Amino acid sequence: MTTNIHTSSVVETGAQIAADVTIGPFCHVGADVKLGEGSVLHSHAVIAGNTTIGKNAKIFPFASVGHEPQDLKYHGEENSLTIGDDCTIREGVTINPGTEGDDGKTIIGNNCFFLANAHVAHDCKIGNNVIFSNAVMVAGHCHVGDNVIMGGGAGVHQFCRIGNNAFVGGLAGVENDIIPYGIALGNRAYLGGLNLIGMKRANINRESINKARKAFKDIFNSDVPIVEAVKNAEKEMGDDPVVATILDFIKASDNRSLCTPRSNRES
After folding, report:
1. Omega within 30 of 0 (cis) for the link into 206
2. What pLDDT is stored for residue 141 in this prediction?
3. Which of 25, 41, 191, 209 has CB 3.0 to 4.6 Å from 45, enough for a Cys bridge?
């Protein structure tokens, strides 16, 4: 296996380029970049900073990966960006490393797909098998779980959490945490129910889906305060792993309020 680097591209001294990497014309790879085996940089892709990218990445023209954070508080402190294996980063995508306002790290899992002009801000933690559709914007310090799909043009406020297997509709403006398996819709986003299609794709059994639907109804569609409703659901259905995931997510809420259905009153 041989590495193929176009003569018009710049790979700075110190960059660690694995075997079988292809770097197309007019790319720039910084001195502290580590690029995994089998990765492909199409023309005009730029990788900077203390950035580690796993195997089989596909990075398309005008992507900006690892440049300094878009944060006025950033003043040159050490930081990093880590991207897992088998990720696709399409045209114009921007992904920033961390800041000292958090742990200094932006981390992205495996098999993620970032469509054109999506943005991942500083200090975000993105899980595995995540899809950001075109022009999705996720602000700093957000945590996005595994198997999350975000529709085109969706925007997420800083410090929000999005649970595993959630779905965010196109153009949604997300200000609050979205429970695992939830569907968030609208501007500003509200919780439209559970992501039943995603749950079926994840091979979650019918019994767990039914229990999750009941827990959702009991928590969000009653006059009982959410804190009390969560305790009741935990007693009744907490032994189910899907319900337990949702309840644990709600109990861990800290920086942001929960995204709730439109009919839900403040609790």
Report:
1. no
2. 98
3. 41
When divided into structural domains, the chain yields a total of: 2
Inter-residue contact 256 to 160 (CB < 8 Å):
yes
Does residue 169 lie in a domain region? yes
| CATH code for the domain of 170 | 2.160.10.10
Secondary-structure percent of the chain, ordered helix, strand, coil, rounded to 5: 15, 25, 60
Does residue 66 sit in the same domain as residue 93? yes
60 belongs to a structural domain: yes
| 29 in a structural domain | yes
pLDDT bin (cut points 50, 70, 90) of residue 253 is: confident
Distance CA 173, CA 189 (A): 5
Same domain, 161 and 239: no
Q: Quick check: helix, strand or coil at residue 198?
A: helix
Share of the chain above pLDDT 70, in %: 99
49: left (phi over 0), alpha (psi -120 to 50) or beta: left
Which domain does 246 fall in, by range?
Answer: 205-251
Same domain for 55 and 159, yes or no, is: yes
Catalytic amino acids? 122-123, 140
pLDDT, tens only, 17-41: 999 999 999 999 999 999 999 999 9
Q: Cα(98)–Cα(160) distance, rounded to whole angstroms?
A: 16
Q: Kindly state the tokens that stand for 144.
A: 């996005």
- Whole-number Å distance between alpha carbons of 212 and 206: 10
Place of tokens 């945590």: 143
Q: For residue range 66-88, what is the model confidence (pLDDT) as tens digits?
A: 999 999 999 999 999 999 999 99
Segment 185-203, tens digit of pLDDT: 999 999 999 999 999 999 9
Whole-structure pTM value: 0.96
